[in-house]
Specification:
Radius of gyration: 23 Å
CATH topology of the largest domain: Aminopeptidase
Number of strands: 17
Shape: globular
CATH architecture of the largest domain: 3-Layer(aba) Sandwich
Number of domains: 2
Largest sheet: 8 strands, mixed
Number of helices: 10
Strand order of the largest sheet: 1-2-4-3-5-8-6-7
Distance between the termini: 75 Å
Length: 467
């Protein structure tokens, strides 16, 4: 244990030095006019700016706080969750200054109530950076990306023992920070919110409090992605997977009383076409187009067995939420007191993070968020005409309001296929027919696209009958 603490102290020193260099460079950067990445060259440049070295420096810095337990020290400047959140905010403030103040950075304070993992009311602070959309018709549409910056040792109520939390979840925290710093150099139609969240290990508390408040405010969160445990590529058995990442997407919400529109979707075969899975299809499509060295594997499930993530409170609040997680996990380096036992190293230490892999996953997020925030909103009030028996398919929808809207596509797939197989560009109309393709045999959707070719997630058509 003493040898391990010595090793950690060296890593701490290196992390502080490297992070100091990064912060100085960031603070000295000259603000530039933001670019809207509508051209492939601009888009590729944005993705290339994601830095594995910066991600590593920030992950090592976060691990250097010793523990980031929500129940840990808050007054120290070198240890505990208070020091961690103040450092995160300073980093994001520096990135905001470097881009001319385009990021709005703030603490999101709450009092977490008593629960099985919180013995007394405890201050809980999320760090939120907002990049406001530039298009008046779209800026109220919001996409959220998060990582949780709290950590835990073996016992979730232990706020004293070292809990470096390098992978769980300094990796997701660093990704959210990197996305904020890179993407704030660019301009998007819709609003992007980059969050680092506390209280995840105490029962998703920080995300739940934020999601509840967002719902009460009527925030139009059109999609949310949490990055939780995105840094490991080597399993306990030695298996290595560096070219895949999992994306968990819930289908029908697990509630007793389903909304009427969901019941209607189920009756017409749309159980795989609620908003979270439409969002997942979009994320995978963006990754397939823009990222060549990693594949998104969509998992039709809310999360892994025996685990949970910060997307769940957003799902419970009625928002479309997804979880992105490494393809292969090693539980010796999750939720463990740092120690050597029977010759094996336990603990979530920085040396077990694959930083190039974290950068790949971060680029997947960047591609997904950028395409979502540049595209029009998903079409609303989409309805399938079911007036008569026929082999054609006619769908109608409400017109979008974006000034750069160029038209719509009707997409369809076989009922057993997970992703869209066919499409028909129908132009700038609000009703169209696909001839000789029966609505009885396929699943349909409607997509909006703009003049630069950015497409929204699809909307499933609810059946419409003549009264």
């Amino acid at each position: 244990m003493n040898k391990q603490r010595h090793t950690l102290s060296i890593a701490v020193l290196l992390a502080i030095v490297s992070t100091s260099v990064l912060m100085t460079a960031s603070a000295q950067a000259t603000p530039t006019t933001p670019t809207t990445p509508t051209k492939p060259a601009d888009f590729e440049k944005m993705l290339s700016e994601v830095s594995a070295k910066r991600l590593e420096a920030r992950i090592r810095k976060l691990a250097a706080f010793g523990t980031r337990s929500t129940l840990s020290e808050t007054e120290s400047e070198t240890r505990g969750i208070g020091a961690a959140r103040r450092w995160i905010k300073r980093e994001l403030d520096d990135c905001s200054k470097a881009t001319g103040g385009r990021l709005e950075v703030a603490f999101d304070n709450h009092i977490a109530p008593v629960s099985p993992r919180i013995a007394k009311p405890t201050e809980l602070v999320n760090v939120v950076a907002t990049l406001h959309g530039s298009q008046p018709e779209s800026k109220g549409r919001i996409y959220v990306v998060s990582g949780h910056y709290d950590s835990m040792p073996t016992l979730p109520t232990d706020g004293v023992t070292d809990a470096p939390g390098a992978n769980d979840d300094a990796s997701g925290t660093a990704a959210s920070m990197e996305l904020a710093c890179v993407m704030s150099k660019y301009q998007f139609d819709a609003t992007l919110i980059f969050m680092t969240v506390a209280g995840e290990e105490q029962g998703l508390v920080g995300a739940r409090l934020y999601a509840h408040a967002a719902k009460a405010k009527g925030m139009n969160i059109a999609g949310m992605i949490t990055n939780d445990i995105i840094g490991n590529t080597k399993g306990a058995d030695g298996t290595v997977v560096r070219d895949r990442v999992r994306l968990f997407a819930e289908g029908v919400p697990p509630v007793k009383d389903l909304p009427d529109d969901v019941i209607t979707m189920l009756r017409s075969g749309g159980e795989n076409d609620l908003a979270p899975r439409q969002l997942a299809r979009h994320v995978k499509s963006a990754a397939d187009k823009w990222i060549k060295d990693i594949k998104v594997e969509v998992i039709y499930r809310r999360d892994r067995y025996l685990r949970g993530g910060d997307h769940s409170p957003f799902l419970d609040a009625g928002y479309a939420g997804l979880r992105m997680t490494e393809y292969i996990e090693n539980w010796q380096h999750q939720h463990q007191n740092p120690r050597i036992e029977n010759g094996k190293q336990f603990g979530d230490l920085p040396d077990y993070v694959d930083y190039d892999y974290v950068a790949k996953v971060t680029r997947v997020n960047a591609a997904a968020l950028a395409t979502l925030a540049l595209a029009p909103a998903s079409p609303a009030e989409v309805q399938m005409e079911t007036f008569q028996l026929e082999n054609n398919t006619t769908i109608r929808w409400k017109a979008n309001t974006e000034p750069d809207l160029a038209g719509y596509k009707i997409v369809w797939r076989e009922t057993t296929a997970p992703f869209w197989q066919h499409s028909k560009d129908v132009g700038k109309v609000t009703r169209a027919t696909v001839e000789a393709v029966s609505k009885d045999n396929y699943i349909f959707g409607v997509v909006a696209y703009d003049k630069d070719g950015f497409e929204s997630p699809a909307t499933y058509p609810l059946p419409l009958r003549l009264r």
